[in-house]
Amino acid sequence: MSHRNVFSGNPLDRSGDLRNDAAWLAEQEANPEALAMILWEGRPLIETHEGAERLVWLSLGHARDLARDRDIFLGLWKGAPVFAAEFEGSIDPTSGPAGGLGRFVEMREAAIVLPEADAGIAATAKSLFDWRRRHGFCAACGKATDQASGGWKRVCPACGTEHFPRVDPVVIMLPVYKGGAEPVCLLGRQAAWPEGRMSALAGFMEPGEAIEEACAREVMEEAGLTVSDVRYHSSQPWPFPAQLMIGLIAEVTTDEAAPDQTELEAVAWLTRSEARAVLDETHPTIHAPPPYAIARRLLESWAHGED
After folding, report:
1. What is the DSSP letter of 293?
2. Does the predicted model carry a pTM greater than 0.85?
3. Structural domains of the chain sorted by starting position, each given as residue range(s) with its CATH number in brackets
4. Cβ proximity of 56 and 102 under 8 Å
5. d(CA 261, CA 27)
6. Which sequence ranges form a coiled-coil region, renumbered to this chain (predicted)?
7. Are 270 and 185 in contact (CB under 8 A)?
8. Is 247 exposed, middle or buried (CB count within 10 Å of its CB: 0-12, 13-18, 19+)?
9. 303 and 276 in contact (C-beta within 8 Å)?
10. Which end of the chain is more exposed for a tag (fewer CB within 10 A), N or C?
């Protein structure tokens, strides 16, 4: 991968062809080498080891004793089975059964402090648990569903319908205009963001829409610009709750942008030098997207002449 973003880089073999076998999965659960990471309401349990942060790993049996069997199968690591267990409820488990094991952190903080592999594993687990909480009932007949395939599928015992984790594709793009004295890129601002924060434009794809079409539609809707060319940059799993950010560079035909005042309250054109100032936090008014976001990677790539 020429560009690898935070939350990608999960090193586990997901064993998609094996986890459907209940007997095989039972063998993995009984394996004495089986390990489990822990989450609480989407927050991974981490610890400090030799000055660096990492996920806390417990034996599967220990994790099940703590989290009361609320677990899913994540995959294999060098042949050993890996699971995730999750606590639910408003009380931090480190004040009770998980005391002394580490601390639970929000996933965005985890994205900053954890190694790439740990962040990718934690993101996968969070998305699966979020999906399970939201899909306890069959969309076809309304009956309660059962977990299958180690948590990667739910099956309705009443009508037999199978349900699989949903991934929502989102186009996220950096509009670029090349028709002036020097190239410029466009950032937008939502009213709810911290003061000065600006970022790339983004929006969910719609049914029957190609990636390029979604990019062009969103740029027109949010900034009133016509897209003439779209280039793929990279993608990012985004576990809030389960999106796939499709990073793009979108060339536009004019620099006469107009924020729609619904999704964006303001826009700003930046030269490459101004974009670098934003990234260096030396720009007088604009702050960059957070370091774990693909929007920042898009801006970095363009500012340094990679796109």
Report:
1. S
2. yes
3. 1-135 (3.90.79), 136-165 (no CATH), 168-304 (3.90.79.10)
4. yes
5. 56
6. none
7. yes
8. buried
9. yes
10. N
How many H helices and E strands in the chain?
A: 7, 16
Which residue(s) pair with 53 in the sheet? Answer: 48
In total, the chain counts a number of residues equal to 307
Output the pLDDT for position 69.
66
**Partners of 235 in the β-ladder:** 246
Task: Please name which of 172, 236, 252, 233 lies closest in space to residue 204, comparing C-alpha atoms.
Answer: 172
Instruction: Point out the residues of the chain with pLDDT beneath 70.
Output: 69, 307
Tokens 């009770």 belong to 96
194's tokens? 């911290």
Measure the N-to-C terminal CA separation of the chain; round to a whole number of Å.
Answer: 16
Asked if residues 120 and 7 have their Cβ atoms less than 8 Å apart, the reply is yes
Three-state DSSP class for 187?
A: strand
